Amino acid sequence: MKSGFVTILGKPNVGKSTLLNKILGEKVSIVSPKPQTTRNKILGILNEPEYQIIFIDTPGKHNIKNKLDKYMDSEIEQAKQDVDIVLLVIDGSKKINESDYEFVESFEKSKQKVIVVINKIDDTTFEKLYPQLVRFNNMKFVLDIIPISAKNGKNVDELINVIKNNLTSDIKYFDDDIFTDKSIRFMVSEIIREKALLYLQDEIPHGIAVDIVEFKEDSKKVIIDADIICEREAHKPIILGCNGEMIKKIGTASRIDIENLVGLKVYLSLFVKVRDNWRNNFNQMNNLGYTEE
Ligand SMILES: Nc1nc2c(ncn2[C@@H]2O[C@H](COP(=O)(O)OP(=O)(O)OP(=O)(O)O)[C@@H](O)[C@H]2O)c(=O)[nH]1
Ligand SMILES: [Mg+2]
């Protein structure tokens, strides 16, 4: 058998987590239209009879403004260590700019094999995109440039084939039935955060975290109490919404996804708590699981 570690890197919102979920056929990493959705490195393991590929999804690289950003950056840096291949994901639906080319160029001296993945080709045209790829073609250290759509799956199999042809290890790192390193509790908290990101506007979603306070499971049902943590008193009424409509919407959408995940009936209660400026407080961040290893 062949195996290896593949890290997915790129700016926020380029579709890294969408790609991971598409490759696995399982939702291991949350997705939203807002940047800075992913906060942790997340393993997703593709098991096939002859192959085990361990993908690592990462937060999108962005400017550091607080301690949470610093944590996210350290997750990116850790995810680059000791891997065989890096997928550098670029949003092909927008004009590829100087910083995208520089991002790829910065891997010229890296030990890992470099594959450039141009995502969102469903949202552009061949004529617009291809002239912009010439510069990547001239970067000799780039193993391959693969235009894909993580959303509809176009060329994703081709990408997997290129990865397979470049695996060098023959160690089986994980049992066949494991597809992520994250716990159910983590995935539940992420689902709730995903719905908050989806429904809430402006700056509020970025200051949100989810704390699973109670998780009780029997053969028929799961009872979950979770706190939605926000960083300012003024955000609380917005998350609750008029007559509690917003939190109800977040709760209902979350419950449906959690039921799909656990395969049992779910009773979910959400509460809103304020922890002042928690994104700059190490203790609060530790309590929420944003702990540097
Ligand atoms: N049209 C189109 N949209 C896509 C594609 N892949 C992802 N998206 C959308 O792009 C947005 C961001 O997707 P994510 O997967 O959350 O992006 P990400 O790179 O993981 O973002 P961060 O975690 O914030 O770094 C979502 O609205 C996705 O639905 C694609 O192939 N085509
Ligand atoms: Mg992501």
Q: Would you kindly provide a written description of the structure presented here, covering whatever features stand out?
A:
With 293 residues, this protein is α/β, with parallel strands linked by helices. It folds into two domains: 2-164, 3-Layer(aba) Sandwich (Rossmann fold), CATH 3.40.50; 184-287, GMP Synthetase, Chain A, domain 3 (2-Layer Sandwich), CATH 3.30.300. The protein contains ten helices and nine strands. It has helices spanning 16-24, 67-80, 98-105, 126-129, 134-137, 156-164, 184-199, 236-240, 245-262, 282-287; strands at residues 2-10, 42-48, 51-57, 85-91, 113-119, 142-147, 209-217, 221-230, 265-274. It has a six-stranded mixed beta sheet, with helices on both faces. Strands 7-8-9 form a three-stranded mixed beta sheet. Helix 7 (184-199) runs antiparallel to helix 9 (245-262). The mean pLDDT is 96. Magnesium ion binds at residues 16-17, 29, 37-38, 57.
CATH class bucket of the largest domain: Alpha Beta
Helix-strand pattern? EHEEHEHEHHEHHEEHHEH
Strand order of the largest sheet: 2-3-1-4-5-6
Distance between the termini: 31 Å
- Whole-number mean pLDDT: 96
Number of helices: 10
DSSP, total strands:
9
Instruction: State the fourth-level CATH superfamily of the largest domain.
Output: P-loop containing nucleotide triphosphate hydrolases
